[in-house]
Design brief:
single chain; 9 strands; fumarase; 5-stranded mixed beta barrel; alpha/beta
């Protein structure tokens, strides 16, 4: 069964999600890649506030392609960015902004998993290579920040989406990570082969 979540995101709804659950999202999300993460952390260290409110929103690891036409931004492609690039700063960003839904591809590490447990959040996988499909779910571009400074893919885009997904929970707030489990299974099956070759 595929669930449907609507922003502002509710902590109890996110804590109820488990690895393997599928859902779609309607409401508000914002994009942030490497440069935006570093800027958010830098603002936090200086005690400054973000120039936009992300309360109840989802964070999408994405560098969209946008076209300016008729006084508005039109999304052309909005596929996910490999999330592991943000691992160094993501835990701090999650805790500081109390983010409960991270969307990307490829998964993240144990520090992010710990931060998700602290705030009651999940990491959800969106299929790579489906940028045009993702763009069709964007109802409106509600704002863009740091565009001149960071450029189009690294800027923070605030988006209103409708039925965005399907998304699959691959890291949950209960300490489960599908990526860690698959890695353990692979290593367990490879170990006998390593022993035979070593003998």
């Amino acid at each position: 069964m595929t669930r449907h979540l609507v922003t502002p995101l509710d902590e109890s709804a996110l804590r109820s999600l488990r690895v393997g659950d599928r859902f779609t999202l309607t409401g508000d999300l914002f994009t942030a890649r490497d440069a935006a993460h570093h800027k958010i952390v830098d603002l936090q260290l200086r005690g400054e506030r973000l120039p936009f409110d992300v309360a109840g929103m989802a964070l999408y690891h994405c560098g969209p392609i946008m076209k300016w036409t008729q006084d508005q931004w039109i999304p052309i492609s909005a596929g996910p960015t490999t999330s592991s690039r943000m691992e160094g700063s993501e835990p701090e960003v999650i805790r500081h902004l109390q983010l409960r839904l991270i969307i990307g591809k490829g998964g993240m590490g144990p520090d992010t998993l710990s931060a998700l447990a602290d705030v009651g959040g999940v990491y959800a996988h969106y299929t790579g290579g489906a940028g045009a499909l993702a763009a069709r779910s964007i109802r409106r571009v509600s704002g863009v920040h740091w565009l001149d400074e960071l450029g189009m893919p690294e800027a923070v885009w605030r988006l209103e989406v409708d039925g965005f997904g399907p998304l699959t929970v691959t890291m949950d707030s209960h300490g489960r990570s599908l990526y860690e489990e698959v890695s353990r299974d692979v290593n367990r099956h490879l170990e006998p082969r390593r022993q035979v070759r070593g003998g």
